[in-house]
Amino acid sequence: MIMNLNLKLLKSTLCILSVLVASFAHAETIELLQKNASAAYEKMMESKQAAESLMKDVTFAEKKLATAKQKMIEAEREAETARRKSEQARVAMEQATSRWKQASDTLANEWGKSEVK
């Protein structure tokens, strides 16, 4: 009977020890999982901050690009206006030159007539 009691006590002790070992192993596993989850969260937050920073960079670059495009459009308009004005000035110069030549020819003819008389 004492042997049975000792055997039962031994079995109970072994059972309790195995539960404690399993609990300890489970606790270590949970602690490791918590560390892994914490490290993954830190990486996620770093990635989030990097993504937000890069999105700000993209927004700034897009605004800069839009400004540059607008300046280019304005420069193209100015160049077209300058070309149009230059062409108008060239035409006006040609007309003035033609009138001057006609006036000079008329003057020369009149001088020639006055000398002949």
Structural class by sheet pairing and helices: mainly alpha
- Strand portion: under 5%
**Count of alpha/pi helices:** 1
Low-confidence stretches: none
Could you describe the largest sheet, including whether it forms a barrel? none
Helix content: over 70%
Number of strands: 0
Q: Given the C-alpha coordinates, what overall shape results?
A: rod-shaped
Order of helices and strands: H
Separation, N- and C-terminal Cα atoms: 170 Å
CA gyration radius, whole angstroms: 50 Å
What is the arithmetic mean of pLDDT?
Answer: 87
What does this protein structure show overall?
The structure is a single chain. The longest helix is centred in the middle third of the chain and has 115 residues, at 2-116. 0% of the residues are buried. The chain has a domain at 42-104. It has one helix and no strands. The protein has 117 residues and is mainly α. The termini are far apart.
Descriptors:
1 helix; rod-shaped; 98% helix; 117 residues; mainly alpha
How do the helices and strands line up, and which of them pair or pack?
Elements lengths: L1 H115 L1
Question: Nutshell version of this structure?
Answer:
The chain is rod-shaped.
